[in-house]
Amino acid sequence: QVQLVESGGGLVRPGGTVKLSCTASESIDRYNGMAWFRQVPGKERELVAAITRGGGMNYADIVVGRATITRDAAKNTVDLQLVRLKVEDTAVYYCAADNTCSGYGCYSTRGKYWGQGIQVTVSS
């Protein structure tokens, strides 16, 4: 089973930028879809951005224009950069891998394998 390790979170000022990185223990090319989710207490985990093995990307409406997801198969990493951060972006962010999705389904993957999550707090 793949191990996913997130890094890069922390405390960020409103309007700032955060770059999260997810490092996989094996080739990410084995997964049709990779994604970042986030969750706040009392709410369901929600998809932030997804990227397919072919490089296709999908962004949640809440981050469109502010988020960029990238994948580097040579490094087995999937990064998420989020700019113009808002207080409401505060959440635990999770990396996910999915080897069961296919085609357009990977754009809305529900994730199969998960990292442990990393806290991002947006506060002045």
Explain the overall architecture.
The mean pLDDT is about 95. Strands 2, 4, 5, 6, 9, 10 and 11 form a 7-stranded mixed sheet that branches. This protein has no helices and 11 strands. The chain is mostly beta strands and about 120 residues long. The radius of gyration is 13 Å and the shape is globular.
Q: What descriptive keywords fit this protein?
A:
seven-stranded mixed beta sheet, 11 strands, 124 residues, 47% strand
Quaternary = single chain
Distance between the termini: 39 Å
E-strand count: 11
Rg for CA atoms: 13 Å
Beta-strand residue fraction: over 45%
Order of helices and strands: EEEEEEEEEEE
Shape: globular
Please give the structural blueprint:
Blueprint: E1 4-7, E2 10-12, E3 18-24, E4 33-39, E5 46-52, E6 57-59, E7 67-72, E8 77-82, E9 91-98, E10 113-114, E11 118-122
Parallel strand pairs: 2-11
Antiparallel strand pairs: 1-3, 3-8, 4-5, 4-9, 5-6, 7-8, 9-10, 9-11
